[in-house]
Amino acid sequence: MTLTLTRRPTTEAVLAEFVRDDAGTPLGARAGSSGRPLRTDGQSHYDAWLAQLRREACAYCGAPGGTVDHVEPRSQAARGLGGAHSWLNVVGACGPCNQSKRDLPLLEFLRRRARR
Question: Where in the numbering of this chain does the HNH nuclease domain appear (predicted)?
């Protein structure tokens, strides 16, 4: 899919184009959403997913990560991301990006960053 940038797309247009409505699971269908341990080491799949995100590079700047950020802030209702704590709503982030994003929606954070 190609998003034509003849004019600035609206938030709704970007969400409709790129955001999936199914919450799915990155660790297999057996992961479930109960949070109970399903792994042999006793760790829940969600916690294992968060640990993996912390080891990856920052989704916003590419620096070494270390924290997990909610793309759509927990303080706002998630729109099409499967809920505030869904795996679709979390990404690895470095401390400075996570702190500067605060509770801003993703597009607003990116707009402000582009102005700097």
Answer: 47-99
